[in-house]
Write a structure and sequence with these properties.
3-stranded antiparallel sheet; elongated; 3 helices; 6 strands; alpha+beta
């Protein structure tokens, strides 16, 4: 999926070899389609060279797991979740990540309990 960038002039046309060389060096370049500029798939490159969309997804997963850890530590889960946790006192909490094909979940493994859900991926 390419995202059109409105309000800027397209870059001069480049060969595939030129685009590849720039991308390998971590330079963000637009793709011109019918004279309109688009970001490349993945919403451009982060400074690490990874697709920005992938980096942002990793950030969101980390934030979601941190939020689940905080809710567990402060006993501020939803009442139905708290009942399931309290119903098995003495069983350690094993926080993990579950993915169902479009959505990530901060998941308590021992109780098979989804604590926090991400927005579906598109």
């Amino acid at each position: 999926m390419n995202t059109e960038i409105r309000g800027i002039l397209p870059e001069p046309p480049m060969s595939d070899d030129q685009l590849l060389m720039l991308r390998k060096k971590g330079v963000n370049v637009t793709i011109n389609i019918d004279g309109r500029p688009f970001l490349p798939p993945g919403l451009a490159l982060a400074t690490s060279g990874a697709a920005f969309r992938t980096v942002r997804l990793g950030d969101n997963v980390r934030i979601m797991l941190d939020e689940a850890r905080e809710k567990l530590a402060s006993n501020s889960l939803a009442p139905s979740q708290m009942a399931k946790v309290a119903g098995s006192i003495g069983v350690p909490v094993r926080l993990g990540l579950r993915f169902d094909g479009s959505t990530f979940y901060a998941h308590e493994k021992n109780r098979k309990l989804d604590l926090i859900r991400s927005s579906p991926l598109t």
